[in-house]
Design goal:
The protein has three domains: 2-112, Chitobiase/beta-hexosaminidase domain 2-like (Chitobiase, domain 2), CATH 3.30.379; 117-400 and 411-446, Alpha-Beta Barrel (TIM Barrel); 478-720, N-acetyl-b-d-glucoasminidase (Four Helix Bundle (Hemerythrin (Met), subunit A), Up-down Bundle). It is of the alpha/beta class and 722 residues long. The longest helix is centred in the C-terminal third of the chain and has 31 residues, at 540-570. The chain has an eight-stranded parallel β-sheet with strand order 7-17-16-15-14-13-9-8. α12 (312-327) links the parallel β13 (296-298) and β14 (334-338). It starts with a helix and ends with a helix. Helices cover 48% and strands 10% of the residues. GO terms for molecular function: alpha-N-acetylglucosaminidase activity. Belongs to the glycosyl hydrolase 89 family.
Length: 722
């Protein structure tokens, strides 16, 4: 495949070695001196990554790690720390209590990746998770990526600064540019042609800061041997292009989601219009001049948007035009495309349409991310993407929502089945959550599977996982994890809408409370974790998991109280309605808020203050905070994608979700008292004022946790354990 040769260029071996050694020093401090790290591309002989672990003679170095790339060496280092030192690293914390002395290996160990790529990142995560990151947070993430073996990932920050330069060179004025870019929290959908202008404009300081952030991201990723994916032109243009080039052939796409054309309906250039190549090549040349290139580019033209025509010839022309605009700037270009569109609109994307879009690009010059392969694999009904290489991806999370969830059996077997598929063109595995910093176990599992030749014994694996995560064996904690593994983490079939608990949805009388697992398993896991608290309560990762499992139990309890409220209302039982509603609004939700407020990673203030910290003026700080508040609540001016990016955070539960529930219960009580029927439309109008009021309330929320997690969880347990 041409793609294998085109992505072979990396940082030099010495540079990668130094980058991995610096990573080890950041991770292990002085103890890094007892580990020898080296990079030797010859190990892979041109194939997928390989690492070797062994203990050399003498006492100075406990273990030596050699890898075919910086990433392979880092993955080998984590293999040693995980399997021989009992360590653990995740978004929610690190458990790095190293044995002293470091253990020596009795025999050499080799790890070989079964595929060329281990990919990471969803375009949406750029907004749902990364929007307010500074370099310190990016540095930690890139370290985690390297230790996880990730070798292919996008770097999309700062592109608006380059686009602004290109638009100005084409003749657009600043007002026309400002009416195109969205605010920072919504840039992912501006880049995919879904959204324009909403929550903008972008201040000049934003462009400058993101540009310099991108320099550091790209440099660090490349230094570790990762292939960096840069953005490319997908065909969408600002309306101002039509003023400068009145004869250009551009057509407005339809509205996206629940947005009207005030903020949607972006112009798409006709693939045959000469300006398509002019703009696309101009942008990519400018981008390459700024950041260099690894020859892989991402572009998504029809993300959740119906193309202007289903004619296969038109679709082939579109993909051909996009690819030619890439090769006009970089003859070695490869196109990386998210395959979400094919499963999202299967009625439109029939085999003829899929084949036409894919075959507009020479075979081997496109990589498709089979984005939701754990639930809706597209490769199975497209003959392995009709010959184009693809990456089997786990999507897992929507909107960055909180909520225990996984499809562990599907991800434990799915990648291996895809490799065995007739004429398979699979070239790797990928993690593509819309939001991160949740469900660490699932991502640790998927990263390990990226280096395995066969599925894992999951009950045994999760038992070892719990021991590594908490730094000590504990029978109760291991039992809790095995319960969670077989229930909440083992959704089967097509698993969607799994983060739509009544807790985080606008209340109504028609809410779905169905679960894909036995709720009693979560309650029992809660009991088991609490019983382990005396032994494990000093572990930061244990306290995180205790908050998360208690939160899940409370989420289930909210559904139970909702059902009692609904039943009481429908039965005209006012005392029961007052009782159930009172417990929910005045005790359960405040207690849940207190629990979340006891942990730094569950604080609303952290999200909001990170947004404000990106600002260089009070005006920018206000804009960024409004962006941050809107994204996790109304998602648009009028609740266009209401609660899609919901979070369960201390401060948000009390001042947003609880206030909605209080109003709902009050309206139901008033309905029973007055004899007037409940009207959802009227309630929606009233509750919208509550929701909008939260966005503009200007209250500052704590960034430091308060309260004892164990004590609050135990208090909730004693009150509510069924």
């Amino acid at each position: 495949l041409l793609l294998l040769a085109a992505t072979a260029a990396r940082a030099g071996d010495a540079r990668q070695e130094e980058a991995v050694r610096a990573l080890a020093r950041r991770l292990l401090g002085p103890r890094a001196a007892a580990v020898s790290l080296s990079v030797d591309p010859a190990l892979a002989a041109g194939g997928p990554d390989i690492y070797r672990l062994w203990s050399p003679p003498g006492a100075a170095v406990a273990v030596a790690v050699a890898g075919s790339s910086g990433v392979a060496t880092a993955a080998g280092l984590y293999r040693y720390l995980r399997d021989f030192c009992g360590c653990h690293l995740s978004w929610s914390g690190a458990q790095l209590r190293l044995p002293d002395p470091l253990p020596r290996l009795r025999a050499e160990i080799r790890g070989a990746a079964p595929g060329r790529y281990r990919y990471y990142q969803n375009v949406c995560a750029q907004s749902y998770s990364f929007a307010w990151w500074d370099w310190a947070r990016w540095e930690r993430e890139i370290d985690w990526m390297a230790l996880s073996g990730i070798n292919l990932a996008p770097a999309f920050a700062g592109q608006e600064a380059v686009w602004q330069r290109v638009y100005r060179n084409l003749g657009l004025n600043q007002s026309e540019i400002d009416k195109y870019f969205t605010g920072p929290a919504f840039l992912a959908w501006n880049r995919m042609g879904n959204l324009r202008r909403w929550a903008g404009p972008l201040p000049p300081a934003w462009h400058l800061k993101q540009l310099y952030l991108q320099y550091r991201i790209v440099e660090r990723m490349r230094s570790l041997g990762m292939t960096v994916v840069l953005p490319a032109f997908a065909g969408h243009v600002p309306q101002g292009i039509l003023r400068i080039f009145p004869r250009v052939n551009a057509t407005r796409l339809g509205h996206w989601s629940h947005f009207d054309c005030t903020y949607s309906c972006i112009y798409l250039l006709d693939p045959e219009d000469p300006m398509f190549q002019v703009i696309g090549t101009l942008f990519l040349k400018e981008l390459i001049k700024e950041f260099g290139t690894d020859h892989v580019y991402g572009a998504d033209t029809f993300n959740e948007m119906t193309p202007l025509s289903s004619d296969p010839t038109y679709l082939s022309r579109v993909s051909s035009a996009i690819f030619r605009s890439m090769t006009g700037a970089d003859p070695k270009a490869l196109w990386l495309m998210q395959g979400w569109l094919f499963q999202h609109q299967p009625d439109f994307w029939q085999p003829a349409q899929v084949r036409a879009l894919l075959h507009g690009v020479p075979l081997g010059r496109m990589i498709v991310l089979d984005l939701f392969a754990e639930s809706k694999p597209v490769y199975q009904w497209t003959e392995s993407f009709y010959g184009q290489p693809f990456i089997w991806c786990m999507l897992h999370n929507f909107g960055g929502n909180h909520g225990l969830f996984g499809t562990v059996e599907a991800i434990n077997h799915g990648p291996f089945a895809a490799r065995r598929f007739p004429n398979s063109t699979m070239v790797g595995t990928g993690l593509v959550p819309e939001g991160i910093e949740q469900n660490d176990m699932v991502y640790e599992l998927m990263n390990e599977l990226g280096w395995r030749q066969e599925p894992l014994d999951l009950p045994s694996w999760v038992t070892r996982y719990a021991e590594r995560r908490y730094g000590a064996p504990n029978a109760a904690a291991a039992s809790a994890w095995r319960l969670l593994l077989r229930s909440v983490y083992n959704c089967t079939g097509v698993c969607v809408n799994h983060n739509r608990s009544p807790l985080v949805r606008r209340p109504s009388l028609h809410m779905d409370t169905e679960l894909w697992y036995n709720a009693s398993d979560v309650y029992e896991a809660w009991r088991l974790l609490l019983s382990a608290g005396d032994e494990l309560g000093s572990s930061p990762t244990f306290l995180y998991d205790l908050v998360d499992v208690t939160r899940q139990a409370a989420q289930q309890l909210v559904s139970d109280y909702y059902l009692s409220i609904r039943q009481a209302f429908q039965s005209h039982d006012l005392p029961e309605l007052l009782t159930a509603g009172g417990v929910l609004v005045y005790d359960l939700l405040p207690e849940l808020d207190s629990l979340l407020s006891s942990h730094s990673l569950f604080l609303l203030g952290r999200w909001l203050e990170n947004a404000r910290a990106m600002a260089t003026s009070d005006q920018e700080a206000e804009q960024y905070e409004l962006n941050a508040r809107n994204q996790i609540t109304l998602w648009g001016p009028s609740g266009n994608i209401l609660d899609y990016a919901n979070k369960q955070l201390g401060g948000l539960v009390l001042d947003y979700y609880s206030v909605r529930w209080s109003l709902f219960v009050s309206v139901l009580v008033e309905s029973l008292n007055s004899g007037n029927p409940f009207h959802q439309d009227q309630f929606n109008q009233a509750v919208f004022q509550v929701e909008r009021g939260f966005i503009y309330n200007k209250k500052r929320y704590p960034t430091v946790p308060a309260g004892d997690t164990m004590e609050i969880s135990r208090k909730l347990f004693l009150k509510y354990y069924p």
